[in-house]
Amino acid sequence: MINQKEKQSLQQGHRARLREKFLAGQLTEYEILELLLTFVIPRRDVRPLSRQLYKKYGNIHMLLSAKKEDLMKNDGIKEYVATFFKLIHKITEMDYKVTFDNNPIFHNYHKLENYCKLLLADKQIEEFHVFYLDVNYKLLEDGLHSTGTVDWAAIYIREIIKKALVLNARSIVLLHNHPSASATFSTQDIEITQDLENALEKLEIKLFDHLLVAGNIVHSARNMHFLDKK
Q1: In 3-state terms, what secondary structure has residue 195?
Q2: Is 31:18 a contact under the CB 8 Å cutoff?
Q3: Rounded CA gap, 66 and 85, in Å?
Q4: Roughly what angle, to the nearest 10 degrees, separates helices 29-40 and 79-102?
Q5: How many Å apart are CA 226 and CA 220, to the nearest integer?
Q6: What residue ranges do the domains of the chain occupy?
Q7: pLDDT of residue 118
Q8: Res 2: pLDDT
Q9: Strand 171-177 versus strand 206-214 pairing type
């Protein structure tokens, strides 16, 4: 029978091995989540909680995107743990934005997809965001354009054009989400995308892409040929 002191010693040894594996670049995503939890829950075996959270959210991105209130509904997640996850979420967002400020936004498409998921993956209503890019496709500004309902959000072409001209943007990327079961672009999404593309073209501004976050997938209107000229 293992006593409490021996149990703590085993936990400390396990955590030390996790840290060593992390520094060697050998941790799986599940183990990274476990390691994160060790910093905010220092005196408890966090492996069961890690398994529970990973099974529910599927990956770390979806976990970090969850609202603080929703995180606290999980057994074992107190306010300080939920706040810790949201802090990691914010730091990750900031890191991505620095990357996009200094490199073409599509220089690392995987990072762009992850950034989009961090922004929108767990939102319960539709949101439209706009990324304004310079001549080298570096990020000038990104921001929330509008919020709507569970299956609709408005897009105001005049406002997008006005801001693009103020920023001297040379291209634009649209981003929105589908909180409902719809996993692809709607007919209305495609029509408004093409309307905006035509309006921007007259000003020599390019609509580079329209991205859609649906669950844990990021769809590209460009890759789906919705921006192809007839």
Answers
A1: helix
A2: yes
A3: 9
A4: 120
A5: 9
A6: 4-91, 124-220
A7: 85
A8: 57
A9: parallel
CATH fourth-level superfamily of 124-220: Cytidine Deaminase, domain 2 (3.40.140.10)
Least confident of 65-74, 100-109, 167-176, 195-204: 100-109
Residue with structure tokens 């959270």?
A: 53
Q: For 12-37, give the DSSP string.
A: HHHHHHHHHHHHTT---HHHHHHHHH
Residue 85: how many CA atoms within 13 Å on its side-chain side?
A: 26
Tens of pLDDT, residues 194-207: 999 999 999 999 99
User: pLDDT by residue (tens digit) across 18-27?
Assistant: 999 989 999 9
The three-point CA angle 93-61-147 to 5° equals: 65
DSSP state of 149: B
User: Are 156 and 145 spatial neighbours (Cβ–Cβ below 8 Å)?
Assistant: yes
Structure tokens at 205: 């501004």
Of the candidates 193, 188, 187, the residue with the CA atom closest to the CA atom of residue 208: 193
